[in-house]
Amino acid sequence: MAPLAATGSPRRVPVDCGDLPFVIRRDGVWLYRGSPITRKSMVCLFASVLKRDAEGQFLLETPAERGRIAVEDSPFVVVGLDWTGDGRSQVLNFRTNIDQIVTAGPAHPLRIAHNLLTCEPTPYVHLRDGDGMFPIEARINRAVYYELVALAEPGVRFGRNVLGVWSQGAFFSLGEISSCTD
């Protein structure tokens, strides 16, 4: 039996269309059949139906259809930062390439991944949950990351001295402070 919708009628299960010819490049550009989607309103429309399944795959899903798409890194890029306050009272607001505003905090944490070969940091902000343990995130571009570093202050995370930023009362590590000895 099909699950019931809020109205009491059976909920429609989307038809699985398999792999769709969409790619989201690392720089946030959406491609359809290899060509960039240049109309921001179209990218925003597709972004509104973007989901992430329990296995971490990205899907475009409407009530009628769903299909997998390729994402090189994360589907969105943070391109702007606005902040108010300082220290524990600081609030960080990020703007993505589709003009979504998200405020870092307990519901939207920051995380830093490191390249295994170069150790170069790549920061992300959580936008929304996926169906499993894999969220939908936005990669923070280099210019915004440098702004975060300029706002950073020393702190301690898991017994290690780090530089980090505050937002909505939560402290987010940007990286460990190296101890230099001569």
What is the H/E order? EEEHEEEEEEEEEHEEE
Assign a percent range to the helix content.
Answer: 10-25%
Number of strands: 15
Cα radius of gyration in angstroms: 19 Å
CATH uppermost class of the largest domain: Mainly Beta
CATH architecture group name of the largest domain = Roll
Model regions low in confidence, pLDDT < 50 over at least 5 residues: none
Q: How do the strands of the widest beta sheet line up side by side?
A: 3-2-1-6-5-4
Into how many domains do the coordinates divide? 2
Q: What structural class do you assign from the helix and strand content?
A: mainly beta
CATH topology of the largest domain: duf1285 protein fold
Chain-averaged pLDDT: 92
Number of helices: 2
The CATH superfamily name of the largest domain is duf1285 protein
What is the terminal separation in angstroms?
71 Å
Shape, principal axes of CA atoms: elongated
The largest sheet is:
6 strands, mixed
Strand content: over 45%
Could you please describe the fold and organization of this structure?
The chain has two domains: 15-71, duf1285 like domain (duf1285 like fold, Roll); 76-176, duf1285 protein fold. It is mostly beta strands. The radius of gyration is 19 Å and the shape is elongated. The protein is built from two helices and 15 strands. A six-stranded mixed beta sheet has the order 3-2-1-6-5-4. A six-stranded mixed beta sheet has the order 9-8-7-12-11-10. Strands 13-14-15 form a three-stranded antiparallel beta sheet, covered by helices on one side. It has helices at residues 40-48, 142-151; strands spanning 15-24, 30-32, 35-36, 50-52, 58-61, 65-71, 76-84, 91-96, 101-103, 110-114, 121-128, 136-140, 153-157, 160-167, 170-176.
